[in-house]
From TrEMBL:
It comes from the Bacteria. PANTHER family: ATPASE, PP-LOOP SUPERFAMILY-RELATED (PTHR43169:SF4), EXSB FAMILY PROTEIN (PTHR43169). SUPFAM superfamilies: Adenine nucleotide alpha hydrolases-like. It comes from Desulfosoma caldarium. GO terms for molecular function: sulfurtransferase activity. This is NAD/GMP synthase domain-containing protein. The active site is at residue 187. InterPro entries: LarE, Ni-pincer_cofactor_biosynth, Rossmann-like_a/b/a_fold.
Amino acid sequence: MGFERALKKKIALGGVDTEKMARLEAVMAPWKAVAVAYSGGVDSTVLGYLLGHVFGKPVRLCLVKSPFLAVRELTSARSVASALRLPLQILALDLLAVDAVRYNDTNRCYHCKAAVLQAIGERCKRGEVLVDGSHADDAGQDRPGRKALLERDVLSPLALAGWTKADIRRVARIAGVPNWNKPSQSCLATRVPHGTSLCAAILERIEAAEELLYGMGCLQVRVRWQREGALIQLGRQDLWRLNDTERWAHLLRHMARLGFLHVELDSTPLPSN
């Protein structure tokens, strides 16, 4: 308990809204044990950290490993959970075997989220509450996955307590959470336009193309599938890396080997949240 009190004091001294912290503690108070739908991103990481190390709840991070999760993201998620000494359970799920997901229509995100939450929920122990890292800023956004959360009675304690993305990042920074400033990520399936059926070959090519860009030092990367071509999107801090003619030519050669014969660079940077 002394360790938990020290963390609360450290977070409070760092400028975190004590009222929001109290509201979050009140939301979590009745829970005996918690399973967190974990992605490796800062939101679910901070939620797991607060549950386990600040509020002293028995907590388990549940990460679904699927063809939509890049190896880089899986490795990072494992590393973060280990660094924070939070128990991690990895569940294998072939989302490409789910017809409604593979068809990739405008409801794909809902069907995907539903399948992921069902897989985690089926493995929840008796008395364990299933939660996710959604926050107050998500409320005003069109998030199809939100419907799946509501249908399966998955709770979003950060949102219920009024925590914003800024609150989450502030706590993560103060507490020394390794991924406190990690840009928001999305799964590989989001790179493929609706109406194009998903398959392992497409996802693998996209992941390989993104690895080329990470290998060039980029930190925030999206490679959008465009039949035999690709649209590259980068964070503001990365756009300059492709201004060099030789570097761009080098990238084009390697992209062509992956089957991307037409490559464009989007001059509009990705949002940095």
